Amino acid sequence: MKGTVTYVRLLTDCFNEMFDFYTDVMGLECKIGAHDDVYAEFLAGSIKIAIFDRKLMAEALEMTPTENIHECQDKTVIIYQVDDVDAVADELNKKGFPILYPPTTRHEWGVRTLHIRDPSGNIIEINSILK
Q: What is the pLDDT of residue 65?
């Protein structure tokens, strides 16, 4: 699978505090989102750091409360951009690698996604920009 890591998404239960930290303490420029929102992206050199409401990420992946009960679970998502999400899904299926959430067009996010977990359980979002 060829692609590029474009940003790291931090999942949070304290969005406003995280927003203030990345703008006021770290001095990062917010390019998307705002205080009192549920999603924001900050420029951090050659990649972006995004913050997103943790419960909304769980809902997007249709995870039940029992799947998201551990306090340490699902605090980060690595975003990996590819040209064709469906081709990657086919490649993963051929390898017998489990897909957490199948290819899905997310108009509100501006991308087509699929989600997997690495061996340590971290979520990896594989996406392509909607054209």
A: 57
The full 3-state SS of 36-61, as one line of letters, equals: CCCEEEEEECCEEEEEEEHHHHHHHC
- CB atoms closer than 10 angstroms to residue 108: 8
> 4-129 architecture in CATH?
Roll (3.10)
Strand partners, 33: 40
**Residues 128, 112: Cα–Cα separation, whole Å:** 5
Show me where the domains of the chain are located.
4-129
Low-confidence ranges of the chain (pLDDT < 50): 68-69
Determine contact, residues 52/12, Cβ cutoff 8 Å: yes
Provide the whole-model pTM: 0.66
